[in-house]
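Justification of resources, computational component.

The compute hours requested in this renewal are based largely on the per-chain cost of generating structure records like the one below. Each record pairs the submitted sequence with a full structure-token output. That output is archived, and it is also reused by downstream analysis tasks.
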Amino acid sequence: MLMSPLELIRSLPNKVCPECGQLIEEQAESYLMECDRCLAKKEE
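The structure output for this chain reads:
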């Protein structure tokens, strides 16, 4: 049975930051792998 695209997206697991383990709030067209806090640490 085929899933609708919306059902498929909802069934995907949440993305987790590999640096600190925090859940990442994803936005459309975002391919970031780290959370904002860890990204800010790298820029310093």
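The longest helix spans residues 36-43. The CA atoms of residues 18 and 34 lie 7 Å apart.
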